[in-house]
Amino acid sequence: MPKLWNETIEAHRRDVREAVLDTTAALVAHHGLLSVTMSRIAQETGIGRATLYKYFPDVEAILHSWHQRQIAGHLKRLAEVRDDAGGAGQRLEAVLQAYALISRESRGHHTTEMAALMHRGEEVARAEQQLHRMVLDLLRDATATGDVRDDVPPEELVGYLLHALTAANGLSSDAALRRLVGFTLAGIRPPRR
């Protein structure tokens, strides 16, 4: 089979898969998890049920794939923010600001029942470890440059920061989000002498 043909088939499969993931997430958000069926997903996506079953065995598998895509996108976004910022303290602040924003945005994507289903398993644990490592490395760098206090080990601070910023999912304004990040950062800055 020619390479172009293979690439075209792969692109088509990727597009179908993405459409299924997007459609399923929208259906869950609008109608609730229990009301979403494979038939409805196929109908809303515009593909046949038999085709849908070639891609996914059930609704839960679709939701897990969607959630994995979301997590990968969040981690990529945080890495880009980190890489675009200046010094150690600026990188830490930029990542924490982006993490708080992601936490707030994710609130709109998850129903309670969907969150209970999605926030378990190895993929989520791996993503949490990646996030933890990223922030820990940023804390270590910022501690070394004097941007973060050195009287508390970065290994302790990372948990404090990430837990404090989960409060962002209850905030409705950008100003409140900035205040949360500002208060959180104030708690880890070196004490004034």
What layout of secondary structure does this protein have?
Blueprint lengths: L2 H29 L6 H8 L3 H7 L3 H26 L3 H20 L4 H7 L3 H23 L9 H12 L8 H13 L7
Explain this structure to me?
This protein folds into two domains: 1-57, Arc Repressor Mutant, subunit A, CATH 1.10.10; 60-193, Orthogonal Bundle (Tetracycline Repressor, domain 2), CATH 1.10.357. The model has no long low-confidence stretch (mean pLDDT 87). The protein contains nine helices and no strands. With 193 residues, the protein is mainly α. Helix 1 packs across helix 4.
Whole-angstrom Rg: 20 Å
Beta-strand share of residues: under 5%
CATH homologous superfamily classification of the largest domain = Tetracycline Repressor, domain 2
Largest sheet: none
Query: Which series of helices and strands comes N to C?
Result: HHHHHHHHH
User: Mean of the pLDDT scores?
Assistant: 87
Number of β-strand runs: 0
Query: In CATH terms, what is the fold-level topology of the largest domain?
Result: Tetracycline Repressor, domain 2
Unreliable stretches (pLDDT < 50, length at least 5) are none
> What's the structural domain tally?
2
Shape assignment: elongated
Q: What is the name of the CATH class of the largest domain?
A: Mainly Alpha
Class from secondary-structure proportions: mainly alpha
Helix content: over 70%
DSSP summary: helix tally: 9
What is the correct CATH architecture of the largest domain? Orthogonal Bundle
Distance between the termini: 71 Å
